[in-house]
Amino acid sequence: MYRYLLKRLLGLIPTLLIVAVLVFGFVHMLPGDPARLAAGPEAGPETIELVRKDLGLDLPLHQQFVRFFSNALQGDFGKSIRTKRPVSQEIAERFGPTFWLTVMAMAWSVVLGMFLGIVSAVWRNQWPDRLGMTLAVSGISFPSFALGMLLMQYFSVKLGWLPTVGADSWKHYVLPSLTLGAAVAAVMARFTRSSFIDILKEDYVRTARAKGLKETVVVIKHGLRNAMIPVVTMMGLQFGFLLGGSIVVEVVFNWPGMGRLLVDAVEMRDYPIIQALVLLFSLEFILINLVVDLLYAWINPTIRYR
Amino acid sequence: MTTPNAPESADRAVAAAHTVSTAGAAAPSLPANLAASTRMRTPMAEFWRKFKRQKLALFAGVFIIALVLVAILAPWIVPYDAENFFDYDALNSPPTAKHWFGVDSLGRDIFSRILVGARISLAAGFVSVAIGAVIGAILGLLAGYYEGWWDRCVMRMSDVLFAFPGILLAIGIVAILGNGMINVIMAVAVFSVPAFARLVRGNVLALKQQTYIEAVRSIGAPDRVIMLRHLLPGTVSSVVVYLTMRIGTSIITAASLSFLGMGAQPPTPEWGAMLNEARSDMLNAPHVALFPSLAIFVTVLAFNLLGDGLRDALDPKLDN
Q1: Cβ separation of A149 and B163 shorter than 8 Å?
Q2: CB A266 to CB B296 under 8 A?
Q3: How is it placed in the membrane, per its record (chain A) (predicted)?
């Protein structure tokens, strides 16, 4: 297991390096002069030159990259163009709301998705299956921003049960996490169903039934554990989807998280923020995939001895 | 050439032919004595036999064809001009006989805007996925066939692209290229490439082990011919299934970017952009948001149902 862990960690290094180069190159691919952007519209040519020096944009490219990389390792991404505050500080404030939103969405959607998937597989081609799969295919087809707007219109505006925007209490989390998790629950339901159908055809399931075990024991003890392996992988992939989805959902609910910060930053061409956020999002995604792979290896021993 | 060597039954043969030949390829000439129990079918006929049993997918397919026709004809069949007709007496009016889907806050007919919007959304879905599929298929084909350093290179690049959540990559690309629908289509195409590359590569790696590939290789067929005529057709069925699903996802992503203000700009009647415009007036006129939402939902649903149906009809594992 430790050897596998080491192998996987080393395997990450090239990917991380390429991601860092891309994110670094991002500023140089932006239209316009970053120094001019940072200096502001009224700045004269001397000021722009000063800012260029200050940002290190006059240095040769490889020196700039080393500087960017070592600064990034220390958590220093420069200052936001819009607010003039350190980027790390801006992001730190926004991290919590996005993190909790993602975790809550993941929690409910995995539980519901797996439940729907198992029910659909056990009662295959009967009404619970039809209902579950209709819900699931609708879930993957409904765009999250539209769902969020409709939920908000109904539960917040019409019924007045839940607050519309902000992230102050648990009530604020209900609608955004529902919106964000809907597609994931749908994907999980479809995936769990197909993986469970395969499992229920296995010989050991027939043996368990032949022993006279109750169907619930067969499904939960013999089916669920084996069906978990592909389901866990899917869960990890969905986490990445949630990270991306949170960008849209945060805009709908005016959520004070990283997604909205990113959208605002793109609008204002606040490139230090964009750069840091893109790096952070991808880093998170890569780490989650690593954790999933490890989990996968832990559940399924054949992987780690390969 | 795509005929399997010695199948035990015609059914198995047809199923195997599916995996190694295009669904639309000419009939493989199976030995006649094997067809005694089951009637002989071409892969296309077999596909059609299974596909037409799936009423929902069939219906979705017909709906998509109708939608494509509507999208093409939209400028000539809309009751009102989508951008420049303003009915000031019916601002925010809910659906009426005159305006089927109601009127938005500027007095524009929502039904007309939805029809014209179908053009943009469908074009965005088809074009971005087509670009992604073609580039991805070429990369995957070469990677799977030659393996070695080129394969590692392609797979490493797709790992990197996969390291960004899709919409984040699209936002980054749009930030570089600037707002606008064309740039959104490019961005969505870019993150379709690695998915198709992996899919085709995986298929090619498996197909390469088949005896018929060994056979064409031994008669001295050049690499180009082996790849294009003997390997590529074998990947078609899984590519088509994935493509169909992917169009739905891409329509949602493109609409999301327009909703975030990075794609189509007002007054263009793109569905996501319409929803963004409707946000400010949700209190007075929720129907302005409802119809574009439904339009996206129904369109994407149709592609997903069609994709499900195609998968069930093309998957030999489900042959029972």
Answers
A1: no
A2: no
A3: Multi-pass membrane protein
Question: What pLDDT is attached to residue B17?
Answer: 38
pLDDT in tens, B214-262: 898 889 888 888 888 888 888 888 888 889 989 998 999 999 999 988 8
Are the C-beta atoms of B168 and A243 separated by less than 8 Å?
A: yes
Distance between CA atoms of residues B219 and A55, nearest Å: 63
ipTM score here?
0.81
What distance in Å separates residue B299's CA from the closest CA in chain A? 8
DSSP structure string for A73-97: HTT---B-TTT-SBHHHHHHHHHHH
Of B320, B316, B314, B315, nearest to B24 by C-alpha is: B314
Closest CA to B236 of B273, B196, B268: B196
Q: Which of B59, B155, B259 to mutate to test the interface with A (most CBs of A within 10 A)?
A: B259
Q: Which residues of chain A carry a pLDDT beneath 50?
A: none
> pLDDT digit string (tens) for B132-171?
999 999 999 999 888 888 888 888 888 777 767 778 888 8
Chain B nearest-CA distance from A151, in A, is 11
Q: What are the residues facing A86 on neighbouring strands? A: A79
Q: What is the pTM of this model?
A: 0.82
Instruction: Write down the pLDDT at residue A303.
Output: 61
Task: Band the pLDDT of B35: cuts 50, 70, 90.
Answer: very low
Provide the b/e sequence for A26-44 (b: ≥16 CB within 10 Å): bbeebeeebbebbbeeeee
Q: Which long-range contacts (CB under 8 A, 24 or more apart) does B58-63 make?
A: B58/B309, B59/B305, B60/B301, B60/B302, B60/B303, B60/B305, B60/B306, B60/B309, B61/B306, B61/B309, B63/B298, B63/B302
Residue of chain A whose alpha carbon sits nearest to that of B290: A150
Distance to chain B for A263, nearest Cα, Å: 7
Residue given tokens 């002069």 in the structure block: A33
DSSP state of A152: I
B55 part of contact set with chain A, CB < 8 Å: no
